[in-house]
Amino acid sequence: MAKALRTKDKIIVTAEMLFAEHGFEQTSLRQITSEADVNLASVNYHFGSKKALIQAVMARYQSVFMPALDAQLTELARRAEINGATYNTVDVLACVNAPLLALKQVRLDGPVIYLRLLGYAYSEIQGHLRKFTMTHYGNTVQQFFAMIQTANPSLCANTLFWRLHFSLGAMLFAQVSGQALREIAASDFGEEAHAEETLAKLLPFVAAGIAAPDPRP
Amino acid sequence: MAKALRTKDKIIVTAEMLFAEHGFEQTSLRQITSEADVNLASVNYHFGSKKALIQAVMARYQSVFMPALDAQLTELARRAEINGATYNTVDVLACVNAPLLALKQVRLDGPVIYLRLLGYAYSEIQGHLRKFTMTHYGNTVQQFFAMIQTANPSLCANTLFWRLHFSLGAMLFAQVSGQALREIAASDFGEEAHAEETLAKLLPFVAAGIAAPDPRP
DNA sequence: CTCTATTTTAAACGCTCGTTTTATACACTC
DNA sequence: GAGTGTATAAAACGAGCGTTTAAAATAGAG
Fold it and tell me: What residues are annotated to bind DNA (chains A, B) (predicted)?
């Protein structure tokens, strides 16, 4: 029983690293099992299939991130209600920071891993992740959406919908292509940067884009 | 000789359609050749390899788009120089509109196809497309970059670099996931939309994001 | 018509993939 | 310590992939 958990853990830890690095479809079970030093068949034994392994990997991060995000959003809304103040776009967007950092509990480089996984999940298995997220954490996502709406009362819901997905795209692209871009930036501008700094650069961009005046009021 | 071109054309026309729909790696040569009603081996005969076919497909669009973009940028710079006026971020970004529409020469739905191909090219074969684009059309890309810089003199080059790639990510994501998102938007807001309208929604978002004040001057 | 070069075809090759099977080793209860 | 359920191991399966081969068909030139 003790040895069993060891193997299952070795698989999941290795898998999420390789998935984050090369994507889900580009990572074979043979890569994972040889890197983790376990038998090929053990993936199917412990998880049932590759698809189930992918879901297990994603679920491990979502189950930490989403409740933490929910708490941040609720806290922000509560504070605003108490002192009658209002919150802006940046306030709402900043709610993702702490939940991201909380992923260090899962793994030291959890935040980076999770964002890269998200990027690949969206670009490869398209609808699946969205469906999974919405059925399990739909309330949190809707609260996030509603609070962005509250922070930008002049924008129509349709515009906001698209701008949030543009933002998501910007973030996912920055994560998936992040390492390559960071190397180019380093050679062009002489500035070494880490994934966290890239994320910090994203916030002003996204906040301004979302809060831009609606072209058709 | 006449029949030969017919086959080669059938392959490329079918390939770019399937590539745009499912991505490069997800589309097999057997899908392409059976859909195009040609023999499997004819791809390797006419193009040499699948990789070469992908490059041929991309080159067909780039060779129309990039020179057209170059012309637009040069024209904008010329007008600004003549009457001493200046141009802003939107002016520069709007330079991609006409070149996109010019892709209808290649194919009726050329603009949509090209943007989707771009999305997959960037997310799948990562560095390859960038290298190819830079070696063949590096001047045009640099001119675009420089003019965005001119339109936003207060931003440092590093910030601009990242914001342009954030913008690219937003656009690519909107294209690759565009159909699914459009269906969701239609069911949530009752608004049917086409790919062109999605692109129109992108411009204000991206322009505001790029032109946002630099957080560290 | 004949010869030659180009194009098309059918078949197979070699490889990788996820999955399944079958047998062996292990841990724990009685 | 025998017996039982769980875990690991090696091997093979069947399918799909890009590519290659070698023969058949087709076209154009002399």
Answer: 28-47
